[in-house]
Amino acid sequence: MALHPDRLFPVEPEARAIARRLFESVADLKIISPHGHTEPAWYAEDQAFPDPAALFITPDHYATRMLYSQGVRLEDLGVRRRDGKGAAVEGRAIWRLFASHFHLFAGTPTRLWLEHSLETIFGITERLQPANADALYDRIAEAIATPALRPRALYDKFGIEVIATTDGALDDLAHHDAIRRSGWHGRVVPTYRPDAVVDPEARGFLENVEKLLAMTGEPATWTGYLNAHRARRAFFKAHGATATDHGHPSAHTENLSAADAARLFDEALSGTAGPAQAYAFRGQMLTELARMSTEDGLVMQIHPGSYRNHNPSLFADFGPDKGADIPKATDYVHDLKPLLDAVGNDASLTVILFTLDETAYSRELAPLAGHYPALRLGPAWWFFDSPEGMRRFRETTTETCGFYNTVGFNDDTRAYLSIPARHDMARRVDCAYLARLVADHRLDEEEAHDLARELAYGLAKRGYRL
Amino acid sequence: MALHPDRLFPVEPEARAIARRLFESVADLKIISPHGHTEPAWYAEDQAFPDPAALFITPDHYATRMLYSQGVRLEDLGVRRRDGKGAAVEGRAIWRLFASHFHLFAGTPTRLWLEHSLETIFGITERLQPANADALYDRIAEAIATPALRPRALYDKFGIEVIATTDGALDDLAHHDAIRRSGWHGRVVPTYRPDAVVDPEARGFLENVEKLLAMTGEPATWTGYLNAHRARRAFFKAHGATATDHGHPSAHTENLSAADAARLFDEALSGTAGPAQAYAFRGQMLTELARMSTEDGLVMQIHPGSYRNHNPSLFADFGPDKGADIPKATDYVHDLKPLLDAVGNDASLTVILFTLDETAYSRELAPLAGHYPALRLGPAWWFFDSPEGMRRFRETTTETCGFYNTVGFNDDTRAYLSIPARHDMARRVDCAYLARLVADHRLDEEEAHDLARELAYGLAKRGYRL
Amino acid sequence: MALHPDRLFPVEPEARAIARRLFESVADLKIISPHGHTEPAWYAEDQAFPDPAALFITPDHYATRMLYSQGVRLEDLGVRRRDGKGAAVEGRAIWRLFASHFHLFAGTPTRLWLEHSLETIFGITERLQPANADALYDRIAEAIATPALRPRALYDKFGIEVIATTDGALDDLAHHDAIRRSGWHGRVVPTYRPDAVVDPEARGFLENVEKLLAMTGEPATWTGYLNAHRARRAFFKAHGATATDHGHPSAHTENLSAADAARLFDEALSGTAGPAQAYAFRGQMLTELARMSTEDGLVMQIHPGSYRNHNPSLFADFGPDKGADIPKATDYVHDLKPLLDAVGNDASLTVILFTLDETAYSRELAPLAGHYPALRLGPAWWFFDSPEGMRRFRETTTETCGFYNTVGFNDDTRAYLSIPARHDMARRVDCAYLARLVADHRLDEEEAHDLARELAYGLAKRGYRL
């Protein structure tokens, strides 16, 4: 049951041997984690994590969605209803329920991440099942109470060199301040994620913009609003940020005149903007934010194409981020054109594109990134952060835009304990891909070694200017 | 030339050995055939099949379309014109023509199915070619005249445990009645396919609905029409049906108010419904039929995305189902939302989705099935019922929705003799996929054995409530 | 560093051995190059090629786009600005700049083509890098000054049997004339590419049509215009052409009445046609040109789905074909229907379809080509003219339309020295694909040998009627 040293490598012995050699040279490289969702409070306060279910199950929508799809109620997995109804569920009961459904995860990355964490952090090499659920629960609960498994200790144990969090535009970054003031050697940097003050359809948009303007002392004008963004970006940058992040329903951008943009802003702020205006405003803001990136050097990340909260009754009961966001077809070639017309030829800018629509890899994203100096491709994302997903990403992009128009791996996770597992998976899959290119003589092994290092470490570090 | 025991397995010896072991444990499992198009009359009357051409070529649009694409006339393959013109063609002449074009099928599943049938049923291990066409024709003709190759004997020889037919809503199920009354041990169940009374654009829609209402004694109102469906479903269920089937141009659904739906029904029945109304009505009916499934427990199958009768002159001459149905892009994430809003969270409901647009696997179908309790994914369908098609289905869905949100294999065929060949292919390809996961240490071989059994037998049996 | 004899073959020894045997039997077959962009002047004048940079870098948009995407200026690669500003750059400086960025091409076909050319034509087996850039430059420069590397000598050295060029409808084919009159044994045939007189949105459309009518003595009427095409096609055919080529933004076709088409033509010619009229006119012309092909037997090629000149500032500075054409989603099933309704059942017609949208392979193109007698599939095109691109083409089309509804390989290149490299790659990848089918017992090795020969030679020769 123990983790096999050759996992995820090609089965053919010659290619496997190459993959082994490549992986050996990158397995112990420091982790660059330039995009993710861990809590800055963890590093600031360095408290022990709560019980195993709260650590591994309840907050992980990969885990809860699979059980939900097979008829398990979210309440029974510890997910709290918005109306506060329903009794709290014991961690142990959640863990048992999970154990009795663990076979559902066969063939999924969630299974591989969990088993990697259990073995490397807790020394557990048994497959989770009803019979051993209680024993494993106790063992994990005991371990996470110890100082060796507190966030800062794990940061060192995991070999993290730098980790980025994702923070709203209105965030005071107090935890990031506290981390810095504490004198701890870890490097935790914020990321500027302004969706809530950029999307007129976001919950509380008007209040959010009001706060933004108040925080920065700017007037409620288009110019004031843009300057407020500039001020907050500078604030984030002063706290170590090197990047911004933008999760939009589509990749749509606009390149309006200042007058038209100002008019749109006034509509948005008056609360009269309908869906078409909101769509246009979000699009215009991507271009404005890209222009700001040419000024302040922050790397821009665009994550489009998720139909958020597809399940309205689940959303009503439990709120967002419960596994009901569904990918949709995304058109980059037309949608990004206004932004690219404005800033696409600026080689000092870096815009990193992600997708949930794999058809865009070979048809649009690799051709775009293989041409525009400002564009790079982010790694296989979300549902595609998986062995087959990563393989398809390389197979459908490399031939057109090469390796150097990509930016290495990022774990994009709120599951802190899974971070080493995810980087391990990405490094293995990339080494397996490179090994196949070496084995059929498309690359020399020597350059494959250089590339393996770039994919595991160099590209992320340089791509995100860390 | 004989069938190789390792066909469709991985070539790498280690993975091949695993695939062999997995396949050995499922090769002889009984066949569950929960969706198909064999004729209930075959089982009821148990007559010998006609000549080899009528058995293997003329009714098989996979076979005739390939020859047609290379300039062979359908008339020469025995396909009769609607206007009755043209002389009947002798089976032997058709067979010879087919033999002289058999090289066209290299690399296709049709070739693999045919050769499997020839060897396992007729003991023929030579490749079909002009030189042996007559001899093979005689050998097959002789064999199918014997009692051992009648439908009921083949049912046993093939190891079928249960087989579903597909039957119009107006069908009297007389053959199913006859089968039951005959005391034969075979289990042949009908499937409720109401497209002809659901689609206002279907040929004869108004007459069909009239018949439906007459059969059930319901009035020509929206409520009466829905009750007529309920009555027919109950009739099918009483004859053994466990499922319904819906072949729609798109996955579009609606969730209208009862008043709006009633108005739409009245338009459809008055013959004034245009394409937009027909589109909406079909969409509304999918939701209504899903609601009925929550009442009566029938599993619902949705087969969308075929552009039927793409070739109008061929349709005029020969009618439907002559190989001129072409897949088109299909949007599940928006189209299914109204139905899912209505019943998607009902874990007692099973809706099985199929696609002819492979891009939907990883982008939409696996994410949807990995979340909604009511959804399951049907196997790779029609043009994708093939080794590469099945492999891509597993590779692009498993990581997101696992194995247990799929429902095993179904052969979907009217080619009775190919049924064992198709299940053999599916079992081999699934074992090959599992073997690769075992070989690169994503699964243990022990659990792969359990999964192989589920994919070959258990998932179909439970998924279709058989 | 030298080219490995097993490059691009399966790694698994059994499959590799089969691939070797298959490749041996096709490696030395003559090259049929039925679609490409070499200059007829080369063969007519037989002059030495200029310096290495002008040969390998400046005109190759695959090469320049990759460097541009990483911040290199096109000016520094020798690409001249339209306004004539900027000093000419020395070939040696361009070569050095290229050498210092050569690592960007790891994993791309450009790298494999270049290394194949360097070794087989110049005997260079070192990897290009800054340290050896000058030495290799000198070596290449010296060699291309010799008679052995002039266009006609290379034609023989490369083993070309016939090569097609691509020529505007207004071209006088003087170079083709000169080639024929010279008595040289090489076969260089033109291809009729009328986009500039067919697309109302093409630069200079009105002048182009005026010239077309003047050349053919036809009046400025719809009938005159169609007859002018007929006359030019006859002229091309008399110069050896066997095919036409059409590069349209989409696959859209129309099948209008003669009166409506004539009205559209009048609008186009009056300069009052907007985008919708231009779109309709282009679509109508595809159908008209297909009809002409049924008359004169010229094979019709349709290359849709490129968003040309996506980067307007680059286009303003440098003009078209500088690496800024980006693929877009393409719908064949609806777009081609009017053309297919008109002529799709004509088995004497050959229409060859290409795509930049790989999702169409399995969903639309293979099902269409596997049905309509007039349709064939062109090989993996442009960004997909690569090992993975070719593999995906076979894996997603063969099972539905077989091998015989495809037309072999074409190199589609203006990079003359890369022609053997490209055919070598295509033959290897096809043999690798066939070897896998043999190794897992989907094909016999004997028929794989026949198929390898068809894919490398026979299908292109027959498909293009050469």
From TrEMBL, chains A, B, C:
Its EC number is 5.3.1.12. SUPFAM superfamilies: Metallo-dependent hydrolases. It catalyses: D-glucuronate = D-fructuronate; aldehydo-D-galacturonate = keto-D-tagaturonate. Keywords: Isomerase. One of its GO terms (molecular function) is glucuronate isomerase activity. It is an enzyme of class 5 (isomerase). Pathway: Carbohydrate metabolism; pentose and glucuronate interconversion. InterPro entries: Metal_Hydrolase, Uronate_isomerase. It comes from the Bacteria. Pfam families: UxaC (PF02614). Belongs to the metallo-dependent hydrolases superfamily. Uronate isomerase family. This is Uronate isomerase.
